[in-house]
Amino acid sequence: MRADHGPGREADVVDHALVSFDPASVRSQNRAGTVAATAAYGLMRTATKIRVKGLGNLPPEGEGMIVAAYHANHLDPILVGLALKRNGRLPHFLAKSTLFTGILGTILKRVGQIPVLRASAQAGDSLAYAKQALAKGETVVIYPEGTLTKDPDFWPQHFKTGTARLALETGAPIIPVAHWGLNEIYPRGDKKRLCFRPFSHDCVVEFGPALDYSDLWPHRNEKSTMGELSHRLKNTIAAMVADLSGRELPTRFATEETDE
């Protein structure tokens, strides 16, 4: 289903001022990413054991993919990023373009993170850099909710349509990702924000099979299709969370209306 990224398409017209995915840049990003991952892994090993499941569901190296990740803890980007980088994939997380300034911006660019364009000349195509990365065979990581879930039991909530839009405009595979264990180690909430419980729980990251949206592809230009794909993705990730946490899946994930 991959779309043809021929001359003149969005993936090829992105300004290179913020981040680039040419071979030399990607090699540099990989080197910086390896340093960052080594430090992060050493830090995480002081708190937990990380297990990764479903690596066989990742497409071959060199094929672009969208990693749609469950977001329940401030530390889970580290967990998901480590699971990818230590298995040969440099993760390119989407981040607000306003973060790409100063020291933080230098770091983000150095490790190849992707700015989401909003109030700019390219605001009409806020996923332009992500499209470019996918066209170059890179791994793009998106949190479909756009923020941490606020559900008290940590179930996924409303998914925005950006992930679906990116898939439907590029044909890239969507790999759903769930994890469990971080909230036992670093509990969320104002009263527990400073609470840290090392080795209280293993952390598990699972990469699911690529989400099948072949039936939606012929209707990819219809607005309702983005909502249907977002809904399908949310229910898939919720089922993975239920399995990892050993809990029963709430019935709402089988009966809720399409995400808009």
TrEMBL record:
Domain Phospholipid/glycerol acyltransferase per the UniProt entry, residue ranges: 65-182
CDD domains (alphabetical): LPLAT_AGPAT-like
Cross-referenced SUPFAM superfamilies: Glycerol-3-phosphate (1)-acyltransferase
Keywords annotated in UniProt: Acyltransferase, Transferase
GO MF annotation list: 1-acylglycerol-3-phosphate O-acyltransferase activity
InterPro entries attached to this UniProt entry: Plipid/glycerol_acylTrfase (IPR002123)
Listed Pfam families: Acyltransferase (PF01553)
GO cellular component terms attached to this protein's record: plasma membrane
BP GO annotations: phosphatidic acid biosynthetic process
PANTHER family: 1-ACYL-SN-GLYCEROL-3-PHOSPHATE ACYLTRANSFERASE, POSSIBLE ACYLTRANSFERASE
Name the UniProt record assigns to this protein: 1-acyl-sn-glycerol-3-phosphate acyltransferases
Organism, as annotated: Brevibacterium iodinum ATCC 49514
Top-level taxonomy: Bacteria, Bacillati, Actinomycetota, Actinomycetes, Micrococcales
